[in-house]
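Project standup — Tuesday

K.O.: blocked on the structure for the chain from last sprint. Re-posting the sequence here as requested.
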Amino acid sequence: MLYLEVPCSEYLRPYVKYYYFLEGDIDRPLEYKCLPEGFPTMVFNFGMPFNVKSIYGPIIKISKSYVSGQNTSIYRMRFVQKVIVTGIVFAASGLHNLFSFYMKDLVNQRRPLDLMVGKTGNIIYDDLANSPSIESKIIKIEDFLNSYYETAKSRLSIIDEAIDFINDRRGVVTIQEIVTKYKFSSRYLEKKFLEKVGVTPKLYSRIKRFSTVTDRVSRMQKVDWQEIVLENGFHDQSHFVKDFKKFNFIKPSQYHHQQQDQTWFFE
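H.V.: unblocked you, prediction finished:
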């Protein structure tokens, strides 16, 4: 199974994190557990239909394309036979800034792309389906995003700076620090976060902290849990375990043991 991440062009970086490509033939079902990272996505499927399941709704069969907002807990993707998936991973406010979606409505949701952007969604899907290589798909994706670029620039605001501040602090930040730094009220901050990101700034900060922890733990052979607690602003180990389980539903130590088993299938 090939999994490839490709950075976007520099001018799109305020809105897009990267593109990914998942391709291969499998002789048994593959279930992949996805964790909250703070990034909305746009996903195109050109292989066999696959299933997506979260705790917030029924199993969804994906045959074509969808848009997804923030995820606040794990969800699972189950693939069979031929896998050909292309994805766009957006910055936290990137989907809103490019397409003006009200992001609160997309939290833990997967909405068909054509219902969100109209016939343009079908056009980009067909363009990608007919692209013979990853390089040509990237060109088509960026042509598609470029048509929204000028409008996206006009939607950049001080809230995007606040999002960057949270990201730079890896989620270890208080709401009081944010409103003091940018000189607006906590009520205004929350209202704009629900519009542009989909969740409150407090929850977004927790997601970013969780993502930082899981990324680091997944790369470690042996984990110093006390060091993780101190570096990421938890009160104590009990607070850390409780917060971790709210997103992943298992203990951090269980996640660490499982991680190697989950990733072996990808090259």
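K.O.: great, moving the ticket to review. Confidence is low (pLDDT under 50) at residues 263-267. The CA atoms of residues 228 and 245 lie 15 Å apart.
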